């Protein structure tokens, strides 16, 4: 693939559609803890977002929860622009009593929770300025080196108490998520990440980032956002297929900046004999493991 055939830096992720067992049960997590606002709602679908911009679409009707260690969604990541906004979510999580996690990845700080249907959620604050270099060992391991020279695994625990110090006594916690929040990446469990990477790199046009079987993570993105679509093999031999009708990923959205970019992807899909359906100027397709995505043009 030539340089001109890789995705433009302006490419981004759009709304992520998820299946849930019960929308009323899911809303307290997505709305009251994460902080998304309800934009539209009918009996079977709820659009949630910030400042009128859709980020998450919940589809009712899943027959069962998404079991742990299922090949499907690991988490969808909503990125926030300030550490204070991350602290607000942390405060809401702590007050909710929900089981949650927190990790310092050096290049980001992240909070983790799941909705009642088992759909994983990450709230992420990017901190790329703390990273000096990324090294891969001869055995395929990954080590992150901070600007102060310290080495990190990228999986250290995040100090929530220290994070909450970002909030002053006058800061409101029970407020909607900030309007500049966005879908930053999506992360799935995979059986054959090498096959998936051949598709995402060679057909869709993403650029490779981490490709480590030892670490168990394969991801790709653009020159501007290197970590946009990720796959892990951490479940290893325990990975199982989700039951028919389970909650999980319905589809995610890839937003392209121009008609030329869309035409290029359509051409590469045709050359690779990958089935796709073109409707209303969008492409609907599935990757080699059945994860569905929709490729659309950015709206004016």
Largest sheet: 9 strands, mixed
Q: Based on helices, strands and strand pairing, what is the structural class?
A: alpha+beta
Helix and strand sequence: EHEEEEHEEEEEEEHEHEEEEHEEE
Strand content range: 35-45%
Number of strands: 20
Task: Tell me the radius of gyration.
Answer: 19 Å
Task: For the record, give the distance between the C-alpha atoms at the N and C termini, rounded to a whole number.
Answer: 29 Å
Strand neighbour order, sheet with most strands? 12-6-7-8-5-13-16-15-14
Helix content: 10-25%
Model regions low in confidence, pLDDT < 50 over at least 5 residues: none
SS summary, helix count = 5
What does this entry look like structurally?
19% of the residues lie in helices and 38% in strands. It has 5 helices and 20 strands. The strands form 3 sheets. A 9-stranded mixed beta sheet has the order 12-6-7-8-5-13-16-15-14. An 8-stranded mixed beta sheet has the order 2-3-4-1-17-20-19-18, covered by helices on one side. The protein has a 3-stranded antiparallel beta sheet with strand order 9-10-11, with no helix packed on it. Strand 2 and strand 3 form a beta hairpin. The mean pLDDT is 94.
Keywords, separated by commas or semicolons:
alpha+beta; 9-stranded mixed beta sheet; 8-stranded mixed beta sheet; single chain; 300 residues
Task: Show the helix and strand layout.
Elements: E1 12-19, H1 23-34, E2 37-41, E3 45-50, E4 53-59, E5 73-80, H2 83-96, E6 101-104, E7 108-114, E8 120-126, E9 131-136, E10 142-146, E11 151-152, E12 156-157, H3 160-164, E13 182-189, H4 193-204, E14 207-212, E15 217-221, E16 229-232, E17 248-256, H5 259-271, E18 276-279, E19 282-286, E20 292-297
Parallel strand pairs: 1-4, 5-8, 13-16, 17-20
Antiparallel strand pairs: 1-17, 2-3, 3-4, 5-13, 6-7, 6-12, 7-8, 9-10, 10-11, 14-15, 15-16, 18-19, 19-20
């Amino acid at each position: 693939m030539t340089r001109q055939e890789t995705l433009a830096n302006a490419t981004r992720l759009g709304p992520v559609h998820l299946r849930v067992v019960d929308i009323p049960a899911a809303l307290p997590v997505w709305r009251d803890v994460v902080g998304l606002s309800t934009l539209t709602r009918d009996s079977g679908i709820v659009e949630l977002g910030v400042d009128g911009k859709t980020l998450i679409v919940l589809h009712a009707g899943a027959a069962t929860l998404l079991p742990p260690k299922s090949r499907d969604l690991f988490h969808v990541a909503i990125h926030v622009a300030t550490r204070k906004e991350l602290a607000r979510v942390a405060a809401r999580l702590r007050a909710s009593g929900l089981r949650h996690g927190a990790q310092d990845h050096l290049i980001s700080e992240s909070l983790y929770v799941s909705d009642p249907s088992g759909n994983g959620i990450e709230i992420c604050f990017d901190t790329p300025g703390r990273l000096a270099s990324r090294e891969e060992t001869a055995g395929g391991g990954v080590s992150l080196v901070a600007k102060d020279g310290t080495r990190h695994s990228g999986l250290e625990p995040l100090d929530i108490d220290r994070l909450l110090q970002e909030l002053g006594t006058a800061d409101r916690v029970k407020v909607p998520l900030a309007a500049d929040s966005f879908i930053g990446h999506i992360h799935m469990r995979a059986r054959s990440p090498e096959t998936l990477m051949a598709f995402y790199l060679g057909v869709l046009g993403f650029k490779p980032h981490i490709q480590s079987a030892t670490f168990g993570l394969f991801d790709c993105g653009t020159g501007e956002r290197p970590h946009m679509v990720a796959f892990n093999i951490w479940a290893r031999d325990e990975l199982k297929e989700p039951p028919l009708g389970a909650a999980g990923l319905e589809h995610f959205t890839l937003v392209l900046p121009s008609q030329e970019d869309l035409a290029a992807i359509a051409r590469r899909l045709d050359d690779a004999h990958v089935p796709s359906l073109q409707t209303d100027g969008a492409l609907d397709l599935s990757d080699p493991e059945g994860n569905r995505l929709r490729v659309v043009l950015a709206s004016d």
